[in-house]
Design brief:
By secondary structure, this protein is an alpha/beta fold. It has two domains: 21-163, Rossmann fold (3-Layer(aba) Sandwich), CATH 3.40.50; 196-432 and 453-497, Dihydrodipicolinate Reductase, domain 2, CATH 3.30.360.10. 34% of the residues lie in helices and 21% in strands. The two termini are 22 Å apart. The structure holds 6-O-phosphono-beta-D-glucopyranose. The site of 6-O-phosphono-beta-D-glucopyranose has 5 residues, from loops.
């Protein structure tokens, strides 16, 4: 259960202080608003991090009024945060407008609601629109925002937050971008990837660049390979419709997994600001060599069959509610990428992500090469010791390094030992703050550092498009090909075994 977070030190906020503003949530009755957006606003409110003059307006087709919306959201917050203490103070910031986001005529009511809260609270023309709706609605909403005049600010700013996936391939992403750019400028568009708001994801950067000891070995001379795992034990729940159109590559690889890869591989940015960081992540994608697609080569796709997760029997993907019985949608992907630059030449990056894996684990593991010389000798048959540095991003946030040590005793026996930094213990934080909370704050501050720029999205599609196209044009030979609760298809094991390596345990 997510607990309220403690911010012991305010730390360094990169952006300007939050100005008074209004947030408009499109899709205000949907899962994202209930499960993430409103609970994040509530957490920010409790920590005193929201601007004093702040209002959130929910907009959706539900025939609710503001009182009903507050009740619904209070329930959602209780479920998500475990309590709704201080709800009343927060609830007064929430209101609701019932309307159809695709109907231009319904924007007048929204405009009136914005004006009302602005004049009641004395908020200047600072408004951001969060599109928590299915992606096919993005263009119509943006067009309506433009036509209704809501995208224009005479005395303040307007910003647009767009959820992923941004497009469904390179072409549609470019088209979507063109349509957004008819109304909003690049500096007003916040393409959100909630992984970048996770504390431990940002910690990868701090760890690499705030400690002198890592950067010198962070290259092909010392690193054998990198494994990035985003495993989930959950299935697709009630999202069959979304998932059938999306699949694992569009849902996870094109955004979350490639972002983790970029943060592990980027060159030190000159500054921690939007331009510097995003220039470097774009360069990483530029240098990625698309994986070969011949038969038997990478990438590997999978779909879960029935199995056992957490001691309970679960259905296979094809038996999930709303999934057609012959679906060929992949729920697992594994691939080997290489980054063709000075630092990473010939170092494989192995990526894997899947639903219904044995457990939830998001991890970036750096596998070092053995020392050049085995001074301590090596018992016959035992492989040379290799140190591993793993960023465990969730659920047990921390950084773990396996290093070699002498085992106590008369012989000089070398054994691996584990050095552990646990986020929760070190900072006394039971649960890290929600990624969305930080990202919403960034939007209010006008800080785009942790949001994807259009060129990054374009390059990411360029990498995954051929994979998706190939998979969509050639039905899989055997689906389902892994049982729920197992670590993925045999071909994924084979992918590493061919090169004398193996995946870290899940
Ligand atoms: C979302 C995907 O972006 O991320 C989901 O659409 C996935 O399919 C989720 O379950 C994982 O997020 P987290 O924060 O739980 O790791």
């Amino acid at each position: 259960m997510a607990m309220a977070f403690e911010v012991r030190e305010p730390g360094l906020r990169r952006g300007r202080p939050c100005e008074p503003c209004v947030m408009v949530i499109f899709g205000a009755a949907g899962d994202l608003a209930r499960g993430d957006l409103v609970p994040s606003l509530y957490e920010l409110h409790r920590k005193g991090l929201l601007p004093e003059r702040f209002a959130a307006i929910g907009f959706s087709r539900s025939r609710w009024d503001s009182a009903r919306y507050r009740d619904e959201m209070c329930r959602a917050v209780r479920e998500s945060c475990g309590s709704s203490r201080e709800w009343d103070g927060f609830a007064s910031r929430l209101s609701f407008v019932s309307g159809d986001a695709s109907a231009p005529g319904d924007y007048a009511a929204l405009a009136r609601a914005i004006e009302t809260v602005r004049s009641e609270l004395g908020i200047p023309g600072n408004v951001f629109f969060h599109l928590a709706v299915p992606p096919n609605l993005f263009p119509a909403i943006v067009e309506n925002l433009g036509a209704s005049g809501l995208a224009r600010a005479d005395d303040g700013w307007r910003r647009l937050v767009v959820e992923k996936p941004f497009g469904r391939d390179r072409e549609s992403a470019r088209d979507l971008d063109r349509r957004l750019r008819e109304v909003f400028g690049e500096d007003q568009i916040y393409r959100i990837d909630h992984f970048l708001g996770k504390e431990t994801v940002q910690n990868m950067l701090v760890f690499r660049f705030a400690n002198p000891s890592f950067e010198p070995v962070w290259n092909r001379n010392f690193i054998d390979h990198v494994q990035i795992t985003v495993a989930e034990d959950i299935g697709i729940g009630t999202r069959a419709n979304f998932y059938e159109q999306t699949g694992i590559v569009r849902d996870m690889v094109q955004n979350h997994v490639l972002h983790l890869l970029c943060l592990a591989a980027l060159e030190p940015p000159v500054r921690f600001d939007a331009d510097s960081l995003r220039n470097e992540t774009a360069k990483v994608l530029d240098a990625i060599v698309p994986p070969p697609l011949e038969d038997g080569a990478t990438p590997v796709r999978g779909q879960y069959g029935e199995g056992v997760v957490d001691g309970g029997k679960v259905a296979g993907y094809r038996a999930e509610d709303g999934v057609p019985p012959g679906s060929t949608t992949p729920t697992y992907a594994a691939m080997r990428l290489t980054i063709d630059n000075w630092r990473w030449a010939d170092v494989p990056f192995y990526l894997r992500t899947g639903k219904r894996m044995p457990r939830k684990l998001t991890e970036v593991a750096i596998q070092f090469k053995p020392t050049p010389h085995a001074m301590f000798g090596q018992p016959q048959g035992r492989p040379r010791y290799r140190s591993v540095l793993a960023f465990e991003l969730q659920p047990d946030e921390g950084i773990v390094q396996d290093v070699a040590a002498k085992q106590p005793g008369p012989d000089l026996e070398v054994q691996p030992v584990r050095m552990v930094f646990r986020y929760a213990e070190a900072f006394g934080v039971e649960e890290p703050p929600r990624a969305y909370a930080w990202l919403l704050l960034d939007v209010m501050q006008g800080d785009q550092t942790l949001f994807a720029r259009a060129d990054w999205i374009d390059k990411a599609w360029q990498i995954v498009d051929p994979i998706v196209q190939r998979w969509e044009s050639e039905p899989p030979a055997r689906f389902p090909n892994y049982a729920a609760g197992t670590a993925g298809p045999a071909e994924a094991t084979e992918l590493l075994a061919r090169e004398g390596r193996r995946w870290r345990e899940l």
